[in-house]
Design goal:
Length: 94
């Protein structure tokens, strides 16, 4: 609010609200980065479910430094690109 720039999380609450109400396109329009969140949460839930059902331990790929760094790079790039007011980057703004 102070800088006038959109943060990477701007519009996330509205995006989740729309997604939960079945309005997928409008949810993605508020914050496209929510796709990354859904992918990470899906991986976590599926991995936990498989460990409970099959009783085995596996390595969590989210704990590898290259994955953490990649997610950080994607978030920073999204942050920069959504603040560019030129088409098509202006579509990333909430």
């Amino acid at each position: 609010m102070f800088t006038g720039f959109y943060c990477p999380g701007c519009g996330s609450q509205r995006a989740i609200h729309h997604l939960l109400n079945g309005e997928i396109i409008s949810g993605l329009q508020y914050n496209l980065l929510i796709v990354l969140l859904i992918a990470v949460l899906s991986y976590i839930f599926i991995r936990q479910g498989m460990q409970l059902v099959f009783k085995f331990q596996s390595k969590n790929i989210l704990h590898y430094p290259v994955i953490t760094q990649s997610v950080l790079i994607v978030v920073i790039l999204f942050w920069i690109l959504r603040n560019i007011t030129v088409y098509p980057f202006s579509l990333l703004a909430p």
